[in-house]
Amino acid sequence: MELVLITGMSGSGKSVALHALEDAGFYCVDNLPPELLPDFVALEKQHAAARVAVAMDVRSASSLPLVPHQLARLREQGASIKALFLDAGTGTLVRRYSETRRKHPLSQVKIGPAAGDLRRALVEAIELERKMLEAIRAQSHVIDTSMLRAAQLQSYVKALIGSAPAQLTLVFESFAFKRGVPSDADFVFDVRMLPNPHYESDLKALTGRDTPVADFLRAQPEVGHMQTQVSEFLGHWLPALARDHRSYVTVAVGCTGGQHRSVFLVEQLAMHFASQWVTLRRHRELDAWPSAETT
Predict the structure, then answer these.
(1) How far is residue 178's CA from residue 259's CA, in Å, rounded to a whole number?
(2) Band (165; pLDDT cuts 50, 70, 90)
(3) CB contact at 8 A, 207 and 254
């Protein structure tokens, strides 16, 4: 059986992720109490279910500490498990709750307080939830949804669950520093010191996936040095991470606008490591606004 566990912060997109898995052919159950997970998996095995996805959240607060032990037992019994933890910045979560006017599951605020009190109580509830989920987060692949549209998140989830279950999956992600560093990154490389195609008039509107930009960057010695050094660093440490039973490693490469340099290097690094590891590529800014101008 292939089991995908979706957990994470309230408001981070768990329902969107579960819908993506349902579209991919998984039998999905939302808000399953952790106490029922072993019995649920046993029942689905009797029904010969091949692909099952379960969402759990802080509404099962008292029994969440059971989850890491349960996952370990299920793996011992032969289940292929992928645990995905959806996260987002506190400011993003506050904004989402404000837009939807939903109440946080841990909120104890009564009807009628001032707006400032509501916000303060919401932030406190979010931080409490973050602390309660620390142990599960540490054993999961984290996806930072702060900058993601629903369609992006669905694509990322489908790509992750489609990768080989018994191998380390290497995720390369380009991003713009001006929009924040992805919180799900295991390694972050800053390439803003490299020559910038943005200042070349005929390259400004293109991206690092376009041949003219790639040719420009390949001609810069500094770009080649950066690519070699990052490749050597990862080549040295990835085997150790695999021996430590890591399922996913996310390598984030950032430039100013996430359009040229970081995109080019993500493409090159993914191509370089594809023969050794399962590799996925993400371009946070291009995926979100493919027609928008960045700098």
Answers:
(1) 12
(2) low
(3) no
Q: At 234, phi and psi to the nearest 5? A: -65, -40
Give the full edge-to-edge strand order of the sheet including 169-176. Answer: 187-190, 248-255, 169-176, 278-283
Q: Give residue 246's pLDDT.
A: 82
Distance CA 253, CA 131 (A): 28
Indicate left, alpha or beta for 180 from its phi (over 0: left) and psi (-120 to 50: alpha): left
Calculate the average pLDDT of the chain.
Answer: 88
**β-strand pairing of 187-190 with 169-176:** unpaired
Phi, psi torsion values for 191, nearest 5 degrees: -115, 25
C-alpha to C-alpha distance for 280 and 73, rounded to whole angstroms = 29
Provide the whole-model pTM.
0.72
SS3 category, 26: coil
Q: Which of 79-83, 110-114, 168-172, 186-190 has the lowest mean pLDDT?
A: 110-114
Distance CA 254, CA 261 (A): 8
Contact 1, 79 (CB under 8 A): yes
Please name the residue ranges forming H helices in the chain: 14-23, 37-46, 67-76, 90-100, 115-132, 134-138, 150-161, 211-218, 221-243, 261-273, 284-288
